[in-house]
Amino acid sequence: QVQLVESGGGLVQAGGSLRLSCAASGRTFSNYVMGWFRQAPGKEREFVASITWSGGHTYYADSVKGRFTCSTDNAVNTVYLQMNSLKPEDTGIYYCAVRTKATPQYDYWGQGTQVTVSS
Q1: Quick one: average pLDDT of 2-20?
Q2: 98 within 8 A of 6, measured Cβ to Cβ
Q3: What pLDDT score was predicted for residue 89?
């Protein structure tokens, strides 16, 4: 059974940084893509970033490009989202999710971690 556990959220002032972690277990993820999503209060969940477990190919939403960076540590099956120059509009619950490279749908989701950016 695939399990994803996020950590690292918290309260930070605008301009600050946070690093989110997503520990994955339950299978070998070499052919998978890890995604980060977020949901702000009253808004729909939106894509933030993704990275392939093998190759480390990344893709970012325009709103975070240049500020957020995805990386993996395959030795411990953990994906990171380094978030710099945070803005109040980055506030929300951040989720990690995983899908195979062959499908666009993310099949497994973590429980989420709260990020709050104060102005």
Answers
A1: 97
A2: no
A3: 96
